[in-house]
Amino acid sequence: MPDPFTPRPEHQFSFGLWTVGNRGRDPFGDAVRPVLSPTDAVALLAEVGARGVNLHDNDLVPIDASPAQRDRIVQEFQGACQRHGLVVPMATVNLFYDPVFRDGAFTSNDAQVRAYAIQKTMRAMDLGAELGAKIFVLWGGREGTETDACRRPDEAVKRLREAVNYLCEYSLDRKYGFRFALEAKPNEPRGDIYMATTGAYLGFIATLDHPDLVGVNPEVAHEQMAGLNFVHAVAQAWEAGKLFHIDLNDQLPGRYDQDFRFGSANPKAAFWLVKFLEDVKYDGPRHFDAHAYRTEDHDGVRAFARGCMRTYLILKQRAEQWNADAEIQALLQEAGPGARLPPLTAYSRATRDTLLSHDFDRAALSSRGLAYERLDQLTMEVLLGVR
Ligand code: DIG
Ligand code: MN
Ligand code: MN
Fold first, then answer.
1. Which residues are catalytic?
2. What is the average pLDDT across 161-187?
3. pLDDT in tens, 137-153
4. Which ligand gives the minimal distance to the CA of 287?
5. Ligand 1: which residue has its CA nearest to atom 5?
């Protein structure tokens, strides 16, 4: 019997080069794993069953590479992707590692740094387009402050808008067809990062020149670092037609950005997320922006990558089971919309007067039990495999 939780291309699982290539370095310890070259990372991802590989510009091309070196590296990488049958769904740009970005990139107080950040992003877009990417993620890891003495925060918003508007024009000019996915994070590496949550970006997108080209890339760990319910953020983005990409991983509350294996810290929250994505038939990449524990060697990295995908597929099966569970569905019906007044979506004097003249029986409305305890217990039993 084939393993039902084996990843297949149609699952659209992808990983960044920086995820399986993470060497285990942290603020208190040096690297513990040898370098995994981009072509070796492609081979590893193919071996574990991923469909896509994503990259920042400098994950592949060193920041000081010559044009000839760049072209050779890109050609070698393209060959590896073709040999192993991997695609590049998403590209992004590293605007956070080099010291030049120590006070931000698009929001830096230095106009030259802001201009360089846009130039670097244009070149990263060139690379992404060459590799076939159709989604371009922007994570503003350095766009923030340790002290708000450095600039007015509304000035930072203006600079960010100027940069994103310019990059949208560049994509249109080059006919790259990119959809930009903005990724929020509340802090780390900056003391506070602008656009701390997905909701903040949803508000920002509406102020852009080309809002249709821009969506969001919510990350599990980042919303949870802000103490938020991740599936609520994803649902709002989806409902607004702005869920252009998603970064899957896991995170314990109140910690630094842990980027744990998907589902490994809070499987119930992961279940609601997978259920939502599958229920709405989200057809974008399932990207794991996560990395193996520092304790692991490259076999551990393979186990990490396999675990991300396997947990997603197990939770996908549990969501199908939940949706088919007769007792759960009956409880949902009972707790359903109840007796409804005429639909109030269309305001009219008729619905106005109906609503104003209606006597609500608050006592009756308050007394109805909703059986959410039973509903959640059944959910737990589906998850724990006893139903
Ligand atoms: C961190 O969560 C960020 C960077 O890794 C990258 O820019 C983006 C891509 O998903 N996520
Ligand atoms: Mn993260
Ligand atoms: Mn991310």
1. 56, 59
2. 98
3. 999 999 999 999 999 99
4. 1
5. 289
**How do residues 222-234 score in pLDDT, each as one tens digit?**
999 999 999 999 9
Give the mean model confidence (pLDDT) for residues 250-256. Answer: 95
Q: Whose CA is nearest to atom 8 of ligand 1?
A: 139
- Answer whether 0.85 is exceeded by the pTM: yes
3-state secondary structure string across the chain:
CCCCCCCCHHHCEEEEHHHHCCCCCECCECCCCCCCCHHHHHHHHHHHCCCEEEEEHHHHCCCCCCHHHHHHHHHHHHHHHHHHCCECCEEECCCCCCHHHECECCCCCCHHHHHHHHHHHHHHHHHHHHCCCCEEEEECCCCEECCCCCCCHHHHHHHHHHHHHHHHHHHHHHCCCCEEEEECCCCCCCCEECCCCHHHHHHHHCCCCCHHHEEECCEHHHHHHCCCCHHHHHHHHHHCCCECCCEECECCCCCCCCCECCCCCCHHHHHHHHHHHHHCCCCCCEEECCCCCCCCCHHHHHHHHHHHHHHHHHHHHHHHHHHHCHHHHHHHHHCCCCCCCCCCCCCCHHHHHHHHHCCCCHHHHHHCCCCHHHHHHHHHHHHCCCC
Name the class of domain 9-324. alpha beta
Domain regions of the chain by residue span: 9-324, 327-383
